[in-house]
Design goal:
The protein has helices at about 5-15, 20-30, 55, 60-75, 90-100, 105-110, 120-130, 195-200, 205, 220-235, 280-290, 300-305, 310-325, 335-350, 355-360; strands spanning about 20, 80-85, 110-115, 135-140, 150-155, 165-170, 170-180, 185-190, 210-215, 235-245, 255-260, 260-265, 275, 280, 295-300, 360-365. It has about 375 residues and is an alpha/beta fold. α13 runs antiparallel to α14 (about 335-350). The protein binds S-adenosyl-L-homocysteine. The site of S-adenosyl-L-homocysteine has 19 residues, from α3.
Length: about 375
């Protein structure tokens, strides 16, 4: 009988094939065609499970749009290029990028918008938000036109790719596996490590001979290697924004979130978002080994401030009072809630106690001569 829920399906697989790696578990929870978390819902916003930078404020996408336009100009303003967003969510970031680059001469005419998205629900949301533009959806990087240069952005995309947890204990490496415990409940145990996953570990971790858990992701590594190959062959730059750490290290960061609260990763498989912090040390290492130039990582706060987000917030606020002057019926102070909303969104994005420090930004480029804006405070 085919299973009717994701927990049933996972149990059935474990009974048939034995315990599964956490990466397989995460891939099923997020992307199973029928039961996966992203496949059936729009998880964003106050009513959802979490909020992301583009959903907090239009200013985020405006800064990314300005950054992309600047890179495009530094590349010599190619007359055709692919503008790819990986994991575009509701399409808000791409909509803000397009709105903010409208007056950059030639940018819109040259850009071929591509979205890499697996969720049918989110694809529909993206189609609506981007109805004014020609958009192509792809399932993988292999579908991109091989002749055009490419600009890639991904906000909170890498953190959604499945991670495995390898554990060093008793003088050897193990893999943390999902198995069945009492009453067929899902539980974690240790199994033999898959040599292909062990091969992904950086030498300093392999040689550390220290006990601990190290997270690694075949999917992240494969995706980044494809990005490198495409950018080196066709020219281009990629920008990734995510929460994570700058130096590869031991630590367990896989987490589940539901209704803006942390829950156990086994509580409600398929109904909670699962993410892991991005190992930016690994992103940079893969890019450098592939012959790319790496900029950053820098903190999101430093990047956005360098690009002038505070100035933009000021302009938005001035725009409000301009509207007030034109509106005879407005009374003094009517815009205070809007001013507060702008300032509070700004703080959420750049404050070190909010997203400003935890979130990092890295750029990868095929051409060492191109110096993208915003990266001079590299960590
Ligand atoms: N960038 C958006 C959404 C982040 S959530 C924002 O900042 O608001 C992660 C996004 O990546 C979702 O759109 C999800 O459906 C998509 N996604 C996750 N894994 C994917 C995969 N393997 N292939 C394509 N899209 C994926």
């Amino acid at each position: 009988m085919s299973p009717r829920t994701l927990p049933d399906l996972i149990r059935q697989r474990i009974v048939q094939h034995g315990p599964m790696g956490l990466d397989e578990y995460m891939a099923l929870c997020l992307g199973h065609p029928e039961f996966g978390y992203y496949m059936m819902r729009d998880p964003f916003g106050a009513a959802g499970d979490f909020t992301t930078a583009p959903e907090i404020s239009q200013m985020f996408g405006e800064m990314v749009g300005a950054w992309l336009a600047d890179v495009w100009i530094k590349m010599g303003s190619p007359s055709q290029f692919t503008l790819l967003e990986a994991g575009p969510g509701r399409g808000t970031l791409m909509a803000d990028i397009m709105r903010s680059t409208k007056r950059v001469a030639g940018f819109h005419a040259a850009a071929h918008i591509h979205l890499m998205e697996m969720s049918p629900v989110l694809k529909a949301a993206q189609a609506q938000v981007l109805a004014d533009y020609d958009v192509v959806w792809i399932d993988g990087l292999g579908q991109l036109d091989p002749t055009r240069p490419v600009l890639i952005v991904g906000n909170e995309f890498l953190d959604a790719l499945p991670v495995a947890q390898l554990e060093h204990r008793d003088g050897r490496w193990w893999e943390r596996m999902v198995g069945l415990g009492e009453g067929d409940s899902l539980c974690l145990g240790l199994g033999d490590v898959d040599p292909a996953k062990l091969a992904l570990l950086p030498p300093e971790i392999l040689n550390a001979r220290r006990d601990g858990i190290f997270e690694t992701s075949r999917e992240v590594n494969q995706f980044l290697k494809s990005v490198n190959n495409i950018l080196l062959k066709q020219g281009g730059v990629a920008l990734f924004v995510d929460y994570g750490h700058v130096i590869s290290d031991f630590g367990e960061t896989l987490q589940a979130m539901k209704s803006h609260k942390y829950v156990d990763i086994f509580d409600t498989p398929g109904s909670a978002d699962l993410t892991a912090h991005v190992d930016f040390g690994n992103v940079a290492r893969i890019a450098r080994e592939g012959g790319m130039t790496v900029h950053g990582p820098v903190t999101q706060g430093a990047f956005l401030k360098n690009l002038g987000i505070e100035y933009r917030a000021q302009k938005l606020i001035e725009g409000l009072s301009g509207a007030e002057q034109q509106n005879a019926s407005s009374v003094c102070g009517v815009n205070e809630p809007q001013i507060e909303a702008i300032m509070s969104a700004l703080n959420r994005l750049i404050d070190t106690k909010q997203m400003g420090s935890l979130f990092k930004i890295i750029a990868l480029s095929h051409d060492p001569e191109i110096i993208p804006a915003g990266f001079h405070e590299s960590l």
